[in-house]
Amino acid sequence: MKEYLLSNNFDVAIIGSGIGGLTCGAILAQKGLRVCVAEKHFQIGGCAQSFSRKGFTFDSSVHSAPMADDGFICGILHDLGIRKDLRIIPYTNAMQTVTPSGLYSYPRGIAEMLNRFGADFPNEKDSLVALFNDTANRLSIYKGKSKDIEKPLPPSSMSYREYIASFIRNPQLQEKFFTIWPFGGTSPSFAPLFNAFIFYVHTVEGSHYIEGGFSKLADALASVIVNRNGQIKTNWDAQSLTISHSKRATALVNSNSETIRANAFVSNISPYLLHTSVIPESFRNKLWLSRLNNLRPSLSAFCVYCGLQGDAAEFVPNNITLWFAHDDHDSIYKRILSGPPDQIDHLLIMRPPGLSEKSTLTFMYFIRHDAFENWAAAKNALRDAIVSKAKSLIGDFAKQLVVCETATPKTIERYTGNTNGALYGFENIKTLYGQTKLPSTTHIANVYQTGHWTKSGNGMYNVMASAQETAFAVLNS
What we know:
By secondary structure, this protein is α/β, with parallel strands linked by helices.
């Protein structure tokens, strides 16, 4: 930053306390800037919040992340000096899927994955090596680490299905790659080729959990800000930015007319809120509004949180399982988009590690935010349908059930601020992928954006990459 305000003000104000905002704020605080985070709820973390019921603690939305100690996320945590404060637990495998074709476990590590796939599909060994090498190269370019590439990047409209099929010919092996689509929120024919990065990163690093839940990550990041003369303001509902005639933001104002003054402002809230509400009407940009109007938020989810007396590993040996009623993932996705569910055709089943006496299971089911007009009337029936399906898949856990809570898309929107309860920011579809990834800058010179609505996108890995990019943009302004 080139100039500073008075000492009783802040260098940077961050709107929203999701992991993107907290990571960005922590990096800036470590660089010597005084940071203030404004959060409208009583709890920080956004999608990384937790809640407790009758002695059971549940992660609300985030249940896993690639967090190998030599990986990208832990690299940031080491740099911030907080890696030692978190106990990161590796999952039993990178992921596990269950389809009519059977159960398939995906090991951690490229060599291990190549060995597993190579043993099951020996005719595809060379193709697998070529695919992983190509994906690694493209990921390096995407992250700005390399400018070299052996062949031109394909069109941005190339789908994940088309990308995998350009290397792998065996339909059964292709399907092993397609089952990871819930990590990106769109099925293979709709998703951009960049979904290959999700598969690759989870293969290289594996999937991990933080002891005590992912809210511990939010707390650790917040401690960096507070310990460096910054502030975290909860129950502080940012309403509008004050913008000068020179088109620079000077202050953030809440509903009680309280003010936070700063040199720069970083939005970690929905861009629909930022550009149609927080930025005053006279300073809104028609191109930005038109762009938002042409995009749509991603899918949301209906979640069932179950607290069990005893060890849930008896029912779910693995920590994260993706179950599908059939192998046609595109038809499942299109059915979700069509409206209210007529069947339970997929479930994400999450069991945190390390708990044996009072353990938890979370069942996540993708759904549109407007699948039901009256969620209060519909949620109990949908909960019962999901629990019934889960019992048929993993066994009757009802005898050990102590707590059963639900979250609708409306719940997710209320606690995270994500428009329509979107889990992944904007919908990641092949035809609009480049346009859906908003830059860290805006049309207001000192107003920035970070989080899963921006480049690099959804998932903890990409959210923290976005935060790092935004922090550097602020520092270099």
